[in-house]
Write the structure tokens for this entry.
Amino acid sequence: MSKLAKKPIVIKDGVSVSLEDSGAKITGPKGTLYFTIPTDIAVKVVDGRLGVSAKKDNDDKTKAMLGLTRSMLANMAVGVSTGFSKQLELSGVGYRAQVVGPDLILSVGFSHTVKITAPSGITFLVSDNVITISGIDKGLVGDTAAKIRGVRPPEPYKGKGIRYVGEKIRRKAGKAAKALGTK
């Protein structure tokens, strides 16, 4: 069993967990999430803590699923209580973003604007060329942020594009030999 799977998940106040025949439903102040538990994994609620264990020992497939199941349940517990967010930064002359209803409209140097519709459970917020993606599902927040970044990834010569806040872009020198006039 993995070291991570041995750690119990602490359930905060205001968060309730109900175990059904094939899954776990976690409800909190921000919403409700459901996760289908693999067949060889057992999940138990004891004293406000959620424990994950294997039904069979020495099964490689089960060992691989233990850590995943525990991580998914822990992320769900955090998501329904506090939520998740990712921030993207626009860098480039004339690059703009605006929110119109549930849609994000990007103007990033193309001849047209790019419209991205928010999946259910995701909200967009734009301020000072920083796009904030918020929601309760960690995977959905990350996928949406990656989709937005994929519209115009940062390029290595001038650094223009959409990047995560705090992301370092390795810059290239360009064609220095041609600029100096040598062959």
